[in-house]
Amino acid sequence: MKALVYDGPRDVRIKDVPDPGIENPNDAVIRVTSTNICGSDLHMYEGRTPMEYGRVLGHENLGEVVELGEGVEHVRRGDRVCLPFNVCCGHCGNCERGNTAFCLNVDSDTPGGAYGFAGMGSYSGGQAEYLRVPWADANCLVLPEDAVEKENDYVMLADIFPTGYHATELADVQPGESVAVYGAGPVGLMAAYSAYLRGASEVMIVDRHPDRLKLAEAIGATAIDDSKSSPVDAILERTNGIGADKGCECVGFHAHDPRGREHPESTMNRLVSSVKVTGTLGVVGAFLPQDPGAEGELAQHGKLPFDMGEFWFKGQRMGTGQANVKAYNRFLRELIHRDRAKPSFLVSHELSLLQAPSAYENFDQRLDGWTKVILKP
Ligand SMILES: [Zn+2]
Ligand SMILES: [Zn+2]
Questions:
Q1: Looking at the structure, do residues 95 and 207 belong to the same domain, yes or no?
Q2: Ligand 1 center to residue 242 CA distance, Å?
Q3: Residues of the chain with pLDDT under 70
Q4: Minimal CB count within 10 Å: which of 27, 80, 274, 355?
Q5: What is the extent of the structural domain holding 22?
Q6: Nearest bound ligand to CA 38?
Q7: Do 205 and 141 reside in the same domain of the chain?
Q8: What is the tally of structural domains in the chain?
Q9: How far, in Å, is the centroid of ligand 2 from the Cα of 112?
């Protein structure tokens, strides 16, 4: 089959690789019909992670079940399924408690697995024609009869919609509250969108890319351009000097100033300043324990000059980490099915798998108008 293979920093190619097959009785194989390029794919693309050469990328996958192991009980051949980016077993201690992003049975040195991802097991990615899905009963979210018609919405259930929602869950967003969101990439936009689904009265979202800020405004958020003025001042101004009730960090360790210099602590510290005393922060932007490509020595070891004093003095709380996609994907699926949510509003490009290498290049340069890419193998 054809697949997108990582051949080194900024070098991805379409290659012929062996078709996946059933390896364990609980496996399924799907024919991939939609697979997204994610901001975290770019971390690997840029060579900022220990990604092995020759691996297939792609962790945001949707497709049709074409093969089943004899142990699979609840998934049928022909089902349209969306797969959480976290590979999970469904029955370890962490999975049982809903913490499927930290599954203890995946073939990884640390808890948590993912398709086509550095440091999260050897699972192959879905930017390919076919994908093997382990523990198919636990990992396949079966889609309803409008699966094909709303495919571009449902594929967002693999990662960014639940991840954006997770930010608002960690931040404990309640009806009527104001929410500050740093980052208007796909996850930040999904966090803003989720905050409104939870009844937020105002969402203020900080970024500097005009295309992203426009999308933020299209969903009713207040767009704040941090290349023009201080986002903290803007948020304090809009909240009578008090700060937002809750805050979401959706940028991560690549946070940089408008001139391109990286300051991995900048969004975290601004978030602390933008949120009121006793407010809660949800941090889903990726921070890594090691980042050898970082500019400063602290950052190379995943350490940040974090404003602990202000954070403590304000009595704030913080939740962090990858989204447990399975904790949210069923009810978010129902919101899409019943026309209460349409996350495909942020899709900018639908391309064939063969166009993936150039799509990586354009997305990596954050070219205007490249907000979210769906590949159709
Ligand atoms: Zn992703
Ligand atoms: Zn597990």
A1: no
A2: 34
A3: none
A4: 355
A5: 2-159+324-376
A6: 1
A7: no
A8: 2
A9: 8
**Can you read off the two tokens belonging to residue 297?**
């020595």
Q: Do 235 and 335 have their domain in common?
A: no
Nearest ligand to the C-alpha of residue 155?
1
Bridge partner list, 62: 34, 82
Q: Which two tokens stand for residue 65?
A: 């079940």
Ligand 1 ion local residues (Cβ < 5 A): 38, 60, 159
The tokens of 241 are what?
């000097």
- CA Rg value for the chain: 20
Cα(17)–Cα(20) distance, rounded to whole angstroms? 9
Q: Which ligand is nearest to the CA of 84?
A: 1
Same domain, 110 and 168: no
Q: Where are the alpha helices (DSSP H) in the chain?
A: 39-45, 93-96, 136-139, 151-154, 160-170, 186-197, 210-218, 231-238, 266-274, 297-300, 308-313, 329-337, 356-364
CATH value at residue 181: 3.40.50.720
Strand, helix or coil for residue 275: strand
Residue 274: name the closest of 297, 296, 303, 241 by CA. 241
From the CA of 111, the nearest ligand is 2
Q: Are residues 262 and 298 in the same domain?
A: yes
- Are 75 and 146 part of one and the same domain? yes
The CATH number assigned to the domain holding 355 equals: 3.90.180.10
Span from the CA of 211 to the centroid of ligand 1 (angstroms): 20
Contacts of 185 (CB under 8 A, 6+ apart): 39, 207, 212, 250, 251, 371
| Confidence at residue 103, expressed as pLDDT on a 0 to 100 scale | 98
- Residue 99 CA to ligand 2 center (angstroms) comes to 8
Q: State the Cα–Cα distance between residues 237 and 136, nearest whole angstrom.
A: 50
Q: Using an 8 Å Cβ cutoff, are 78 and 91 in contact? A: no
Q: Cα separation of 235 and 274, whole Å?
A: 6
pLDDT digits (tens, 9 = 90+) for 268-326: 999 999 999 999 999 999 998 888 888 889 999 999 999 999 999 999 999 999 999 99
Q: Is there a single domain that holds both residue 225 and residue 304? A: yes
Please, are residues 354 and 375 in contact by the beta-carbon 8 Å criterion? no
φ/ψ of 197, rounded to 5, equals: -60, -30
The alpha carbon of 238 and the centre of ligand 1 are apart by a number of angstroms equal to 32
